[in-house]
Amino acid sequence: MSNTNYITEMLEMKDNNIKFYENCYHKEKIKGVYYKVFDGVLSYKPTCCPKCGVIFDKKIEKHGFITSNIKLPNVSGFKTILRLRKQRYLCKHCGKAFTLRDNVTNYGCFISNNTKYQIALDLTKKRSEVDISKDNNVSTNTVERIMDSFYNSQKLYKNSLPEVLLFDEFKSVKSANGAMSFHLCNGITGKTIDILEDRKLLSLLKYFGKYSHKALNNVKYIVIDMYSPYVSLIKKLFPNANIVIDNFHLIQLISRALNKTRINVMKEDKKNYNKLKRYWKLLLKSKYELDFEKWKKFTCFNSFITESDVVNYIINTNEELKQTYLVYQNLLSSFKNKDFNSFSYILNNHSNYISNYMKTSIKTLNEFKDKIYNTFNTNYHNGYIEGNNNFIKVIKRIAFGFRSFIRFKTRILICKGLISINKKMVNV
User: Which of 26, 89, 143, 358 could form a disulfide with 257 if both were Cys (CB 3.0 to 4.6 A apart)?
Assistant: First the structure.
């Protein structure tokens, strides 16, 4: 293998017009950093003058060389530069000079396409743009330009939707129209379908109005939390869809009511303040998961007792807390066992001595009772989309925030693999 072939294979360059001669490689210190430098020459006979279009003849003469320092992907952990001497020609037909073009970079660019492709691959990982720019020896603006090229190439097809959809939201960036952005997921595969700038009803109506009637009619179930605009949206645009309230949000609703009740009691009961404050997790725990066999010493208690004894002591300090706790445990049991008859009975026959917080929660559950029925009779949930939201929060935290919502959305879609990566898309 010749010296030229060896280096072009190592550097992944596909330009047969670039030649490398002996002693073409050396190390060089540039701004305090050692670089691997490869010296190459680009010279070939052009077919015509790119300025005026005249076919190559004797009036197009060689006009010296111009040297370009082209940034390449790192080799063995070292920053790498291709120092390419490009042949120049002077066209006497139009009186203008031109430089030969290569396949390593785009015209007028000093960053190789392979480097841009490496940046695109790094964008799929949970890394900040600053770290990516440092590793690839480019500026953060270059990383952003490459990321923007993905958004311009994205095409969302509005002709199909899965049978199960998941609706949720996450905290957006400051430049977004709304404080919360809308997240749409496939309820079967768990993959993100799209992300909207805000979750307001008018924005959602405008967005889903772009889908075909066939796509909207194909949706059978939509899993949501108890956000009322979602209900209005589904009734208007999804004629065949059944609403399913996510089980996690139902449990969260009643657990918050119990916790607020405990806090109110704690503030008034100075004697048991520390006990009510310390063992709040045991109150929220299912009574069937409490340990009633293992005796041990608990802080704030003088004798050896079990977890079950701790909970019994705490709830007996206040009647309102006790009745609220019993309703909470009964509802929790009905959710876990998917017993809708038991759930309905509790809503209609609960004690009048429960806290106002739990009364408000029960009122909310009654409003969504028909949707909760679907929760008990299906296995669909928002677990997939909550996991995706957590992934989005990680990306946002690693990046120390985003100014532009479009770049934020693009980075999410790239990291989730919703945009395929190829070298044609990063030629910017």
Answer: 358
